[in-house]
Amino acid sequence: MEKIVGFLLICIVCVSARESTYERHCVPCHKELPVKIDKFFYRYVLKYSSETEVKHAMMHYLKNPTKESSIISDGLINRFGVKKKTMLSDDALSEALDTYWETYKVFNKLK
Amino acid sequence: MLVLKSWDTNLRSREKKTLWSFLFLYACLVLISLFFVAFLYYDLQRELFLQHQKEALSNLTNEQITRLKTLHVNFDKERFYPRDERFNSAIYDSALHEIFSTLNSKNVNLYDDIYIKDHKIYYIKELESYYLGARYIALEVPEPAHWDKKIYRTLFLYGGIIFALTVLIGYFLLKLLLRPMRDAITLLDRFIKDTTHELNTPVNTILSNIEMIDPTQLDPALLKKINRITIASKTISNLYDDLTYLILSHHLSSHDETVDLKLLLEERLEYFSLLCESKKIRVSSCLEENVVLSIDRKKITKLLDNILSNAVKYNTVGGSIHVELHDGLIQISDSGRGMDASKTKHAFERYVRFDRSVGGFGIGLSIVAAIAKEYGLFVDIESKRDEGTKVSLSWKK
To answer: Which CATH number is B254-394's, of 3.30.565.10, 3.10.180.10, 2.60.120.10, 1.10.3210.10?
Structure first.
């Protein structure tokens, strides 16, 4: 029995290790919101245009989230409030933003 | 009178040449100025044309932006870039990376708002909201055919009229400016021509009268004086001949005939004999029989006279002249002052003189060179200072 529990634990650790930072730290929270995570992405794109500027704005907001620097509507902020400051390191945050960009970017998706 | 006429023609042709040269330069300058003005005019008209196009293209761009907005909102469901048969378009992010393009050209200048390239008009607009991340949108429409035809027509018509008028004004202005100078030159030339012409009659009179005098009837002192007069008259006569040749050289038609060179050389040596005697120059010759040349008699005589005249003129008192005639070669050598070997190549240039101790204008050898060139004769000068000069005249047999 102990062997089986041990094996299951190892499997869980392995699976969670293969999940990216974005999947582990971003997707779960956004799943609970009525607005999908891609809508936030396109709001950023609408305001900041290029990859560098979008990522820079996101990084800035995640590290210092305020009502003023948020790109979502006042209604959503009033309802869900401003998110908490991220606990992730800069490297982990960059990695998560890279995955986010690659997942929803417009480049090479238009026909 | 023939001399006068030819001199006039010469002057007119030179004036004409100057006039054409000036007109050519003037026309070039006018053309450059006209091209510059035409370029500015064309550029202005092109700008006006593009301003008109800009309004229409701006409306098309707004239509495309509306479609991009719709696509941005529905991007999770729809991924088809909006197309329009009236134009091609492309979108770029703020880092100028192409997001999507249906343009024919890959290189679009996003810093210009409207321009023409490869017969296509490109219109660039910056978006207020970056739908799909697009900060810039570029529209491409074909350039309307022959839109600049009217501009070119206007340019050619007015440019041509202005050019013709300016050249005409330049022509009359130049004529006006040249008139006083032309009058002065004409006056001066007429004076020179008349003087030269009038020189011939008295010189010929002197020479023919001297020939009529029987030397045996004269006492030695008078004979000596008569001989001096003969020499001086012949020198003036030679000078007259040279001047006449210079004036008429381009207008004289040649009357080629078979000339027996031995007879001619003997005749010319006889002509210069008095001059040689006056300087106690010994003349020797070795002339082959039956050496002939098909040439204008007056010209070959002029050529030989100039070489012989130099041989006498630059010779020392008591010196010598040796003349040789072979088939294809005449050599006239003297024991005169000679010249530096390095200077011989310049001896044929007009007005070039290396020894100013004797009279002359430096035109003799240039006449020799001109005649030799006309008949394909080769003239060679060998000279050593204080030893003498040898002039060789050769031709292909």
So the answer is: 3.30.565.10
User: Across the interface, do A42 and B72 touch by the CB < 8 Å criterion?
Assistant: yes
pLDDT of A29 strictly over 70: yes
Q: What is the dihedral of CA B38, B44, B49, B50, to 10 degrees?
A: 130
Query: Would you report the helix, strand and coil content of chain A in percent, each value rounded to 5?
Result: 65, 0, 35
Q: Report the complex ipTM.
A: 0.81
pLDDT at B358 over 70: no
Quick check: is A4 in a domain? Answer: no
Q: Measured between CA atoms, how close is B133 to chain A, in angstroms?
A: 4
**Contact between residue B298 and residue B337 where contact means Cβ atoms under 8 Å apart:** no
Q: What residues form DSSP beta bridges with B390?
A: B333, B382
Task: List pLDDT tens digits, range B74-102.
Answer: 988 889 999 999 999 999 999 999 999 99
Interface residue A53 vs chain B (CB under 8 A): yes
Q: Are the Cβ atoms of A42 and B75 closer than 8 angstroms?
A: yes
